[in-house]
Design goal:
The chain is mainly α. It has helices at residues 3-33, 37-40, 42-50, 53-56, 73-84, 87-100, 103-128, 141-149, 152-186, 190-205, 209-237, 242-253, 264-279, 286-290, 298-327, 337-349, 352-383, 387-407, 410-451; strands at residues 131-132, 137-138.
Length: 475
């Protein structure tokens, strides 16, 4: 048994018997305790997203000195969506359908609907326990584990896992997918494409979170809107097939019709795995960037990150799924990953399809590379302030691992990511289950202020007296 086979066995054991139940269970619990906030507060999510951080804080006592820069709610949302909207939406969805069958799409939807409540809780906690940094705020699960649970060993474990998952292995997935798309569309060598990606990535990541936020704030709207417009065009062109597509998804989801996958267990497992890889709800990644935002109340960023889960899975992933299922190519054994998505689009719009997907995946995945890098940076800073360690991490994240992904096999890079993702998610779920009560209290406070007619609810750390000494911000 080689390394790739061994990792596959471990992944199937962890995902098949433990993590799926934990993810769904936590999502249902958080949905119940937040009174179905992901459905009842959609309007508030959009309102908060469009607010200007500076405008909303004009009457609020500033927490940061004049040298510190504010990251707006929208910029934090853009960075988190940049890491969500990427390879998972194009190659991940295709992989889930090719292996698990069309029913995997249904389970991706389900994990997004319940997972948005999980995303709310983890991002609200990240805002609550955030700390001041030299040029922005910083935070995430490692910080709320240490400050809220006082378990330094668990916080360090999480920091190491997320650095390995996002800062290193996840970036290899993005590079692997970009190189595969470019080779399919233009015949370009993965070596040269990988080298170019590494060079550009290094230039950006050495500029810090402000440069990352600026780049993502430009790329994310362009790539998301462009891809959605194309998908809508394809759907409209095949509108008569949409009822059949939904029928295939639902019947296959419950094992009534097995078209491309094996048993129902495989369908559910791949739907949940690829859904989590794409929307990251409960994985503990988005809270790292959610903590950087300047808002008047922690709940605001929790709402925005819950919206990010919907944006990723219910919109972008569904677009890819519809294109693939409309084409009927999901039954072709030789097609998987980005090649399946490219072939499906080619069958609908002609030879321009693979070229469009190659350009789209370049934007999607490259923005994910720089966003993933920041998740690792925030946690490296948590472990050690040593600048040499940070420099080495930057080189490995945006340089070495990008080149590794460009040259490694499709199966190997996905197996490595699944391995780290499983243990990372388990670590974070333990923490937010133990700390979730604070997010519930914050949500109750937010709703109470809204009922009293306060347009912009505010929070002061004295409102949680048992944590007042643990909260560095929120004076």
């Amino acid at each position: 048994m080689d390394l790739n086979e061994l990792i596959t066995v471990v992944n199937d054991a962890v995902w098949g018997y433990v993590l799926i139940f934990a993810l769904v269970g936590c999502g249902l619990w958080f949905t119940w305790r937040t009174h179905f906030m992901q459905f009842r507060m959609i309007g508030e999510m959009f309102r908060v997203l469009t607010d200007s951080a500076v405008d909303s804080l004009e009457s609020h006592v500033g927490e940061m000195n004049t040298q510190q820069r504010r990251i707006s709610s929208f910029q934090a949302f853009a960075v988190s969506v940049a890491t969500r909207v990427g390879t998972g939406n194009l190659a991940g969805v295709a992989s889930a359908i090719a292996i698990g069958g069309p029913g995997a799409v249904f389970w991706m939807w389900m994990i997004a609907l319940v997972g948005s409540a999980t995303a709310f809780v983890e991002s609200t906690l990240a805002q609550l326990f955030k700390q001041k940094h030299k040029d922005s705020y910083i935070g995430g699960p490692a910080y709320y584990i240490q400050r809220g649970l006082h378990q330094r060993w668990l916080a360090i474990t999480f920091a190491v896992l997320i650095t390995c998952q996002f800062g290193l292995s996840n970036n290899s997935i993005q590079a692997n997918t970009i190189c595969g798309a470019m080779q399919e569309a233009f015949g370009w060598s993965p070596v040269w494409v990988g080298a170019a990606l590494a060079a550009l990535g290094l230039i950006i990541v050495f500029g810090g979170i402000q440069r990352i936020a600026m780049v993502c704030g430009v790329l994310v709207p362009i790539m998301a809107i462009g891809y959605l417009v194309l998908a809508i065009i394809v759907v409209v062109m095949n509108i008569e097939l949409i009822p059949h597509v939904f029928k295939v998804i639902v019947l296959d989801a419950f094992g009534i019709e097995q078209i491309a996958g094996g048993g129902i267990g495989v369908t559910i497992m791949y739907g949940v795995k690829r859904g989590l890889f794409s929307n990251e709800a409960g994985e503990g990644s988005a809270p790292n960037v959610a903590a950087t935002a300047t808002v008047t109340h922690p709940v605001k960023q929790g709402l925005i990150q819950a919206l990010g889960v919907f944006t990723d899975t219910l919109l972008v992933c569904s677009c890819t799924a519809f294109i693939i299922l409309i084409s009927g190519l999901y039954n072709v054994p030789e097609l998987n990953g980005i090649a399946l998505t490219q072939s499906a689009l080619q069958s609908e719009i002609g030879s321009a399809g693979p070229v469009f997907i190659a350009i789209a995946i370049l934007l999607f995945a490259f923005s994910s590379i720089i966003g993933n890098y920041y998740y690792g940076e925030a946690n490296i800073r948590f472990i050690t302030p040593n600048t040499k360690v940070m420099t080495a991490y930057r080189i490995f994240s945006a340089g070495v691992m990008v080149m590794f992904g460009a040259l490694a096999s499709f199966e190997l890079v996905w197996n490595i990511v699944d391995f780290f993702m499983a243990f990372l998610t388990a670590c974070n779920l333990i923490a937010i289950m133990l700390l979730g009560r604070y997010a519930f209290r914050l949500l109750d406070d937010y709703r109470s202020q809204k009922r009293r007619g306060i347009k912009e609810p505010t929070f002061h750390r004295s409102q949680l007296p048992e944590l007042e000494n643990e909260l560095e911000c929120w004076e």
